[in-house]
Amino acid sequence: MLPDLLAGVPDDPLVLDGGLSTALEQQGADLSGALWTARLLAAEPERIAAAHRAFFGAGAQVATAASYQASVEGFVAAGWGPEEARRLVGRGVRIAREVRDELAEDRPGLLVAASVGPYGAYLADGSEYRGRYGVPAARLRDFHGRRLELLAAAGPDLLAVETIPDADEAAVLVALLEEIGLPAWFSFSVLGATTCAGQPLADAYAVLAGSPAVVAAGVNCSDQVDVLDAVRTAVAVTGLPAVAYPNRGGSWDAGAKRWVYGDPLDLALVGDWLSAGVRLVGGCCGTGPADVAALAQRVAGHDGVAAGEPGQQDERRDAPQPEAEPEQHQQQVEPDDAVPPDHRGAPAHEEQGAERQLARHQGQPPHLGRGHEDLAPAVADEGQERVVGEGPVDLRVGRDQPEVDPAHDQVEPSDDRAAERG
To answer: What is the separation of C-alpha 72 from the centre of its chain, rounded to a whole number of angstroms?
Structure first.
């Protein structure tokens, strides 16, 4: 279905949703902890369903499931048993499908994308913004392979492989996608003309070129000013339609110890993105349903004028702009120090190469990500497979997890740590 949609006319793009974490925070959800939004898959699934309804109601045509940070290893580390963890990985897809199906009569053609975040999101140490994890490619295959199998079994329309910082991780993922057989869009997080790991974007997108599994390539959770050059490179290198959904950005208020959201998406930029080949467009962290509604209105009014033609800039400047999020939606937090941490818990000063990117990720409490203190550094013996970068790895969970009946979704932590999470 998705390849047919992408084969349509350039002026008929799909509107994606926004930051799931942002919509959940606007409901008052507690996203603290290493699991981030995935915690609600067990604790408060109704909040996730409500967020999907809000984005669909705002005009989104694709719901991105709450699986970005969902993994067997992550749930096991948080206290669930392996069997329960396997159920939870696919539960986000099933929730999104249920919401999609309940709206099918009035909104036919809505899609569900299973989010596939980077390995660094599981590590919860800030490495999702820099890559170079320090683990063999075999470890990445093992980690992503299990997740992809569970997500595919839950029945999404496509996969959203997103916020990937590193072309080396992308190479592992592309091979796995071809084994899974589901269509996928693939988006890197970028810093100017490079991935967050520092590789030239042309080289990164070349990893995706020619893959039958990848149906769109682009950028997400990055500064909106970096989108246009990234999607132009993606289209030129891969020949695919582009996907773009930047984050909102902002700054850290050290006095108040909270993130202050940046300006909403500049809708004046969207016309150039569409003219450059973007066919899937939405928002990432810090983008709520109101922002998506304004974006959907802008997309509906896109006239296909080529970028740079006379009259385009004035027309785009007249497009309605979303209002800034209300002050009460900016969650106040108490980090370890006055330096802004990232949205998984690593202080921004830990990696200078990630500092610029961390300041742009909004919509999550910055104290997230504790709970993996026992991870050991990866060590590769001489003669063994090449280790990519440097960083920690957790090898406690193998691939021999028991099969689970996906119909049984009600799960609880398997030990006393359930009480700690409230």
So the answer is: 18
Q: Contact at 8 Å (CB) between 226 and 190? A: yes
| pLDDT over 70 (residue 265) | yes
Q: Which residues, other chains included, contact 363 with Cβ-Cβ below 8 Å and sequence gap of 6+?
A: 19, 21, 22, 25, 247, 248, 284, 285, 286, 287, 343
Q: Domains in the chain, please, with CATH?
A: 2-415 (3.20.20.330)
Q: How many residues does the chain have?
A: 422
| Residue 57 pLDDT greater than 80, yes or no | yes
Residue 214: which H helix or E strand, with range?
Answer: strand 214-220
Q: Look-up: residue for tokens 């592309």?
A: 174
Burial class from Cβ neighbours inside 10 Å (0-12, 13-18, 19+) for residue 371 reads middle
Mean pLDDT of 331-359: 36
Residues above pLDDT 90, as percent of the chain: 58
Q: What is the DSSP letter of 218?
A: E
Q: Residue 161 forms beta bridges with which residues?
A: 116, 186
The answer to whether the pTM exceeds 0.85 is no
Q: What is the DSSP string of 361-418?
A: --SS-TT---S-TTPEEP---TTSPPEEES-EE-----S-PPP--TT------SSTHH
Phi-psi region of 371 (alpha: psi -120 to 50; beta: other; left: phi over 0): left
Tell me the sheet residues that pair with 137. Answer: none
Give CA–CA dist 172/144, Å, rounded. Answer: 9
Total H helices, total E strands in the chain: 16, 16
The neighbouring-strand residues paired with 15 are: 281
| Contact in structure between 113 and 15 (CB atoms under 8 Å) | no
State the maximum Cα–Cα separation within the chain, in Å, rounded to a whole number. 65
Encoded tokens for 416:
């006393």
User: Residue 12: which pLDDT band, with cuts at 50, 70 and 90?
Assistant: confident
Q: Which residues lie closer than 8 Å to 117 by C-beta, 6 or more apart? A: 67, 68, 69, 128, 162, 163
Region 286-295: mean pLDDT is 96
At 124 the three-state DSSP class reads coil
Q: How far apart are CA 259 and CA 250, in angstroms?
A: 7
Q: For residue 397, give the nearest of 90, 116, 145 by alpha carbon.
A: 145
